[in-house]
């Protein structure tokens, strides 16, 4: 038990640190790289050529991001079709993390002066490096967030894992804002009105790149995919079927449209905050204050998600969060040069972001099972690739809007707060507050009208999928013994009183639809292996387990009636899929008072699920102890 808890904690912490480095990289790419391009990459003496080069680079990023968006679903499909001894995801997380880290460090340079000595060659090299970095970052990004449904099928456990990850990503994204200007100024040779120089920005990029790669390695070493029959597809999705898989999942598509509009608006405002401190307040160093506050408060916001989702539902958490963000934008619009008001508005705008991210991530994750039940095929990475795809689309729109805003408002190389005209202020406010508010509100309306997948519906979907597992548990297993007794001592899995299967209050079992077997009214809460064999199926709710004996007997042990709705609460599982067990090994422990309190029957059912094999089951009656022979199977 202690080893299992330590393993789960190690996995969560490793995944959280991976998110820390991952979002440090993403925040640098989506927010601070465009600041480097508009304010530091070109010398202020370049005049009109500066604005032209900034526009070209902004346009290149915008176009490449949208070209790369078309590749993302195929990246997800490639990861789904990957099979290595390290799993589906880890090779892409570590490999993609290394290549993207190296390239981003190069992009934070002028490439030996190429940007001014041969500007058009610089643009070509820049485009090639950027698209390469973006593709390998996408492999890492899709692989990383796609691990959640592979780590657990339980909706609540996914929330815990995602919450750990979001704590890490929140700290990572905000620690960049805390350290960006101190590192830049520390390594800069010229202060440049408190904005630093190219040398300082390159040092900052090196720190981010190294942290991002190290965190990817930690994920590779510290996490473990959970194997289950649910994750096994009998056929792979072809490239031609990728778009079909995505577009036919209506809940995934409506949520995607919602999130695309929301994340574009949110990222535009976030990316322009440093410009606000630099060119409106006139002191870029004060931006570290905001990032520090957000890093602390954001952690509490993330931790608050599970209890909030439980109390209000994810859907209501989404609406509450959007309301706070709109209020924050109004305060921001009226804040002017008041630092306290600016900080208040910026913090209020940030607090809901982790909550909305988790709501969207959970619904997208649950849509994996939604699509599997609806279409009979499971596509984890392909489905989860949608979220990073949308974030990158939002980043592409944000980079384009921010680059153009910087040029239109006069916030480019060499400019200071005193240089910004009234027209520049007006343009800046329109693009930082008005445009994002419109996008966010339109996305919210779509969510309200079209997105219906919630926790209750997902629990029903999982229950339906589990029924199909139970029916097919014995499909690939044949009786391999000769005629006669296949199992002389088919032992009781638990202490209690045997009763006929026909007496239980579940028609699926009582009618024999699930197979032949017997039931036991339990005297305690420990399930033991009734024979030596292999664990073939484990369930995310831990209320059942599928075993195959050494003689080929496929058996399902099901704890309670309706207990799937408990989502694993009160159940502890001590074995994993494909693990070899001996007769009498402890498999599952459950707390009977929890089942009674939830209003469910705790009867344990044990059935042989192989419908093709012809056999007779001879069963004892009365009180039994676990390990005691209670049945014989005669072929």
TrEMBL record:
Spans traversing the lipid bilayer: 24-42, 54-71, 91-108, 120-139, 201-222, 252-272, 284-305, 317-335, 341-364, 396-418, 430-448
Keywords, sorted A to Z: Membrane, Phosphoprotein, Sugar transport, Symport, Transferase, Transmembrane, Transmembrane helix, Transport
Subcellular location, principal: membrane
Recorded GO MF terms: symporter activity; transferase activity
InterPro entries: Dup_hybrid_motif (IPR011055), MFS_2 (IPR039672), MFS_trans_sf (IPR036259), Na/Gal_symport (IPR001927), PTS_EIIA_1_perm (IPR001127)
Similarity annotation: In the N-terminal section; belongs to the sodium:galactoside symporter (TC 2.A.2) family.
Name by which UniProt lists this protein: Sugar transport protein
């Amino acid at each position: 038990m202690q080893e299992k808890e330590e393993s789960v904690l190690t996995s969560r912490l490793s995944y959280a640190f991976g998110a820390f480095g991952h979002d440090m990289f993403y925040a640098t790419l989506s927010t601070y790289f465009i600041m480097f391009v508009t304010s530091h990459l070109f010398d202020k003496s370049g005049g009109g050529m500066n604005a032209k080069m900034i526009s070209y680079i902004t346009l290149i990023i915008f176009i490449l991001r949208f070209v790369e968006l078309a590749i993302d679903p195929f990246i997800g499909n490639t990861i789904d079709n990957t099979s290595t001894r390290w799993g589906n995801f880890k090779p892409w997380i570590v490999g993609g993390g290394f290549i993207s880290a190296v390239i981003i460090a190069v992009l934070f340079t002028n490439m030996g002066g190429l940007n001014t000595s041969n500007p058009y060659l610089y643009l070509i090299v820049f485009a090639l490096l950027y698209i390469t970095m973006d593709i390998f970052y996408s492999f890492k990004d899709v692989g990383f967030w796609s691990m959640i449904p592979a780590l657990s099928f339980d909706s609540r456990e996914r929330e815990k894992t995602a919450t750990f990850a979001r704590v890490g990503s929140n700290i990572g994204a905000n620690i960049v804002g805390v350290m960006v200007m101190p590192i830049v100024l520390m390594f800069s040779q010229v202060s440049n009105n408190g904005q630093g120089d190219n040398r300082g920005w390159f040092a900052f990029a090196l720190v981010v790149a190294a942290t991002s790669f190290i965190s990817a390695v930690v994920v590779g070493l510290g996490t473990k995919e959970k194997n289950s029959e649910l994750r096994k597809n009998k056929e792979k999705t072809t490239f031609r079927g990728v778009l079909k898989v995505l577009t036919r999942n209506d809940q995934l598509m409506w949520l995607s449209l919602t999130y695309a509009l929301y994340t574009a608006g949110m990222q535009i405002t976030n990316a322009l905050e440093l410009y606000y401190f630099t060119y409106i307040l006139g002191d870029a160093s004060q931006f570290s204050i905001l990032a520090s506050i957000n890093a602390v408060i954001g952690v509490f916001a993330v931790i608050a998600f599970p209890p909030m989702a439980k109390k209000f539902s994810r859907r209501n958490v989404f609406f509450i969060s959007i309301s706070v963000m709109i209020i924050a934008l109004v305060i921001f619009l009226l804040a002017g040069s008041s630092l306290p008001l600016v900080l208040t508005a910026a913090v209020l705008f940030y607090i809901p972001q982790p909550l909305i991210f988790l709501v969207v991530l959970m619904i997208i994750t649950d849509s994996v099972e939604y699509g599997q039940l609806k279409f009979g095929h499971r596509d984890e990475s392909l489905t989860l690739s949608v979220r990073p795809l949308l974030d990158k689309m939002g980043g592409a729109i944000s980079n384009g809007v921010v680059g153009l805003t910087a040029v239109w408002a006069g916030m480019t190389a060499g400019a200071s707060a005193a240089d910004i005209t009234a027209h520049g202020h007006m343009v800046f406010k329109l693009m930082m507050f008005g445009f994002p508010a419109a996008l966010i509100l339109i996305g919210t309306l779509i969510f309200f009208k079209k997105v219906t997948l919630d926790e209750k519906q997902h629990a029903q979907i999982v229950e339906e999928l589990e029924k199909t597992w139970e029916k097919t548990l014995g499909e690939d297993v044949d009786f391999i013994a000769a005629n006669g007794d296949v199992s002389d001592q088919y032992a009781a899995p638990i202490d209690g009183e045997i009763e006929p299967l026909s007496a239980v209050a579940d028609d699926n079992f009582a009618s024999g639809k699930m197979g032949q077997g017997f039931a036991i009214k339990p005297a305690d809460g420990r399930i033991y292996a009734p024979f030596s064999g292999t664990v073939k199926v484990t369930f995310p709710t831990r209320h059942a387990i599928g075993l195959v004996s050494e003689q080929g007997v496929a058996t399902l042990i099901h704890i309670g009636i309706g207990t799937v709705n408990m989502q694993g609460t009160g159940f502890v599982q001590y074995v994993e899929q494909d693990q070899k067990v001996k007769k009498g090994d402890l498999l599952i422990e459950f707390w009977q008072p929890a089942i009674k309190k939830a209003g469910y029957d705790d009867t344990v059912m044990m059935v042989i699920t192989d419908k093709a094999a012809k056999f007779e089951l001879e069963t004892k009656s009365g009180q039994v102890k676990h390990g005691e022979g209670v049945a014989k199977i005669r072929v």
